[in-house]
Amino acid sequence: MPGIEGVTVQPPESATWLVHIDRTMWVGGVRGLMLQALHPLAMRGVWQNSTFQQDPFGRLRRTADFVGRVTYGSPEEAEEIGRRVRAIHRSLRIHDPDTGRTHRVDDPELLLWVHCAEVMSYLEVVRRAGAGIGDALADQYLREQRRSAMYVGLHEEDVPGSLREMDEYFEEMRPRLRVIPESAAAVRFLLWPRLPGPLRLLTPAKPAYLPFGALCYYTLPRWARDLYGVLPEVPQATVTAALRAFRLAMNSVPDFVHQRVLDGRTRDMLRGSRERLAAAGYDVGKGLRGLVDPRRQPGGLAV
């Protein structure tokens, strides 16, 4: 999987960069976990093979590291983490108490569900928060993410690559989704996550009286909220306003503060990305976020 002349997997001009550089991704990440948890076998795979119960935010940070490496990392860094993830998945199994069967974690159906729930959560949340991403750019993002899905072992041609294909995929999956006890417990964890110390520095970004976990929950599609039914409905206009306030607050936080939330290895990877981009002639004086093409944003650079 070639990067741009070996500099980064995705160039700053890509739709992927435009979505992933936006700090509303934190909401998208938790929303993605909530959505993924509606697939019983996928949820049991997480529950039986990770420390999610003790550290749900740790899973989000590990996901952020993977997404960062297959976006801003070098092709070699992306290939390395892909090999590591595939090797871990190959070694893990899931026991299904409903059928008594044992399943592989790297079952393509499960990998595809996790991928689609994740990338659509990123895209839908960032768009709703006001990033100004039209349908054409959204389709471009999903096409680019088909290539990213290959790092976890999926075949590019099997992954939805447009908004229409994603809509069809979720419509097909909905009859298979339900809340099991592990799903309900996972959402309870995520509604009131135990934030790591560095993230508590960002608590002034809590928007419009909606706690972070509740904001993530309310951005789920209505059918998913109906399945969970754990919070009363609120006007969706309020959710959109809260999400936009969150985006404005988070995108105003200096890089050196925001990056304290990330794993140390992720920070090292981002530092290497800046150095390679600078050597390739990019102006990184305003950090990686400053490289987003302002022509894509109405009124100038708004991310």
Automatic annotation (TrEMBL):
Pfam families assigned: MPAB_Lcp_cat (PF09995)
Record-linked InterPro entries: MPAB/Lcp_cat_dom
Domain ER-bound oxygenase mpaB/mpaB'/Rubber oxygenase catalytic: 17-247
Superkingdom, taxonomy of origin: Bacteria
PANTHER family with a match to the protein in the record: BLR2777 PROTEIN (PTHR36151), ER-BOUND OXYGENASE MPAB_MPAB'_RUBBER OXYGENASE CATALYTIC DOMAIN-CONTAINING PROTEIN (PTHR36151:SF3)
The protein's name in its UniProt record: ER-bound oxygenase mpaB/mpaB'/Rubber oxygenase catalytic domain-containing protein
Organism for this UniProt entry: Microbispora corallina
Classification lineage: Bacteria, Bacillati, Actinomycetota, Actinomycetes, Streptosporangiales
